[in-house]
Amino acid sequence: MFLTLTKTAQERISLAKKLATGNLILYYESNIGCVCGNSGLFTLKITQKEDPEVDSFISTTIGDLPVQGWSLDFLDNDLKLDFDQKKSALILRGESGLINANVLLINDSGLSVFTLHSYKKEENH
Hints:
- The chain is an alpha/beta fold.
- It is 19% helix and 41% strand.
- It contains two helices and nine strands, in the order E-H-E-E-E-E-E-E-E-E-H.
- It has a six-stranded mixed beta sheet. A three-stranded mixed beta sheet has the order 2-3-9, covered by helices on one side.
- Strand 4 and strand 5 (65-68) form a beta hairpin.
- The protein starts with a strand and ends with a helix.
- Residues 1-106 form the Core domain.
């Protein structure tokens, strides 16, 4: 399994890592209120916490990316993460097609790194 990150996706992740401290992981968020078999979404999480479920890695263009081993079943072997400037969204695709049209960059609280930064900026003005 390999995840190619485009240059624009790498830039977006670099910006997020300037706003939040911690390790970047590919995280499958399955607590979204649905009881179907594949009811979650992949996110990129910048975390300072250890998670025993994060027990595997995916090779990427930026090095090995930690991931929950059980979530690998929901991914294709050849993956691509791109950033759409117009939609301001990271897009995850695989050989079978679109996996997530808006991969959020979140912190340990599950909040978007960019949304949280915007609120902090507004509070300071």
